[in-house]
Structures are given as structure tokens and as C-alpha cells.
User: Fold this.
Amino acid sequence: MNAAKPSFARTAADLRREFDCGFALKPATELEPFERFLAVRIAGDSYAIRAAHIGGLFAHRRIAPLPSPLSELLGVAGFRGQVAPVYDLAALLGYPVSDAPAWLVLARSPEPVALAFGAFEGQWLVSVQDVMTDSGNGGARSHVRGAVRTNGGMRPIVHLPSVLDEIRKQIGAIQSTKEA
Assistant:
């Protein structure tokens, strides 16, 4: 009978220790936060775009060309029963205007706006610990804000809200020139 007592005592001590240590751990309900990204290629370079900034992803849409003083405007395309202007994302990032980009993202914004790019490479669910952010530094790539770490290395993040702000500024400048 004495032999069974130490085993029972040791088990009770282990259970007590596990119980006490359980309060030092993160509760199971606190899951690690994640963020979803699209992996894209723009003018041959790898980028990521936050899925939260996108209202839809489309391939091989017909773009009806329009005359425009904005070289970045490729034309208009139909999306879910609405027409949206389509801008060349490569040109907005400072690259030369692309030749017939295959992919379009419909930006999540009050007004419909689509951005065209060369290739869609996939979608990631990334821990927020692997997302580095910065506020941009101006210049040709001022719409690149931070980077995301993936298995394939680091990818710069295209900040769609700043791209849309730039488009609005360009449109505003054209309109104020016409009014003058």
C-alpha cells in the first residue's frame, strides 16, 4: 500500500503544477491574429496586396479603351452590373504602362475603381507578426507601404488606399485645369 501512495502524490503534484501553470498561458480563445494577402506580379516584380482593400479579383476582362489625359487610365470594364474605370497599377507605381494586363482587382471604395496588373500568384493567410508596415517615403513607389514575410521571402505591400487617393488627385487637377 505504501508503494501506491508516492505515485498518487506525484500525480496530484503534477496536476496541481499543470493547473497553476495554465493561468500563465495565453487562453485558448485568444487566437493569433492573421491577415489575408494576394500575391501578385506587377511589371515582373513580386508584390502583395491586402485582401481587405479588395472588393473582387477578375481575370481577362474586356477593357473598353477611352481617350483620357491620364496615361494610367486603360479604359472601362463591367463588374457585377456596374462599369468601373480601369487603371494600370504598374504605371501608377512608376513602371512603364503595361501591355494588356491579365488581372484586375476591384478596389474596395465608395466609387467603383479597378486596377490592372500582370499576374495573380496566389493568396496567403499571414500572421500579423510577419507584416512590417511603414507610412511610405514619397517618390515613384510611394504607394508601397511595408512588406510581408512569406515562405518565398519578403514582398512589398501595395497600399491601395494611397493609389486611389493619387487617382482622385490627378482627376481633381484635370478638372480644375478645365474650369480655369
